[in-house]
Amino acid sequence: METKSNSLLKNTLLYSIGNLASKGLSFILVFFTTFYLSREDVGVFDLFLTTISLLTPIVTLQLTDAVLRWLIENNQFENKARVLTTSSFILLISIFIAIVGVLIFQSFYPFLFYKELLFLLGFQSFFLLFQQFQRAIADNKGYVLSSVFYTFLYVFLAILFLVFYDKKIEGLLYSNIIAAFFSTVFILFRNKVFGYIHSKYYSFQVAKELLYYSIPLVPNSLSWWAISSANRYLIVLFLGVASNGIFAIAFKFPTIVLLLVNVFYLAWQEKAIENYNREDKDDYYSTIFKKYIKYLFVISINLLCINQLFLTYFVDITFYDSWRYTSVLLLAILFNALSGFYGTIYLGAKKTKSIFLSSLISGIIVLLLSYFLIPVLELLGAAIAIFFGYFFLFLFRFFETKKYIKIVFPFATFFVLFGVFMVLSVIMFLELPYGIFWLPLVALVISCFLLQSELQIVYNKYLKKWMR
Question: Per the domain annotation, does 190 fall within a domain?
């Protein structure tokens, strides 16, 4: 148990370096852009990214997940060559079909930035595929480096276009495209990808197996998209692109939780698959899950309490009202993170159809609630709809995964932490005098109390020697 946990910790720390450096920079850039883009511009750019996130799983056919799943179990050269050649060939055909489809759509319903959309979609799809190949062959350092390289190049170019060339939305799109292209080239040379790709390695049987596994994940990804992003179109329809700009910033702050969770998830996904068939899997999953819940709430509580202070000094004043939707969206993201943990059980059991079903129903719930709530409650209605979507997803997977693994849910810990979060949310909405300054201190004290055992270990292992 200890060896497996240490291995998980090692991978988590490695992914932390890459994700916090890369996605952290990207996250900061979003708030930086509020000083150069209007609400409308932010709303349009967010809608573009929403569309990309819709099309990416359709174009990639979720082969990225299949590549990782197939190569973790068999890392021999022949298998790597067959899997990578076959998946690359399928992806190439899929991108060609997407180009034709978008061009036909554009001829009937013209829309802005369709060329940029096609370029970004193509480069990003191969970048994601080759990144999963890096993970599958245990080049985790390469995976981290490619992520960091992508983001640093994107941020550098974005600042260049925004500040010096006043390119606004176009500048952000060009930056993304260039970064995706050169990051893909980086992986090609680092991992000698062309050495694994040759027509002689293409296998029709492997193609069938990969697609049989990955295609059920496509509607699942679309359902995830529906849960978190589809109501952006409804916001634009009912409230306009400026309101979508506000909601984009409101949603961005809680996604720090996902940024940190994804660091863990990248490492946990591999360990969950590797340890699924072990006899002690129930205990292993339960132990990790209990710690996972505690850390989730610590992160969420701190983000909740620092939100207003951050928006006051680091975001243009026209976007300040976005804080009003933070608490609901943070809870939504928290249940999203819990659902993701249970989702790894399906991957280990190779039951991807169950992932799809749970996500599909949740996506439908979000769309229906958004349609009825946004006209009445406006952006708060959009946030509430997303919350109920993720909450249902969590409940579904909580009960349904029991047939595969029996995770002991720490109800007492959960409800105590949930209560603390709700009390702090109410205090935030009361807008008490100087609350934006003392609420972060309250969150810090609560965090130290919750993490006292971890802090004690750090003190005994590192600080105690240093203070002597």
Answer: no
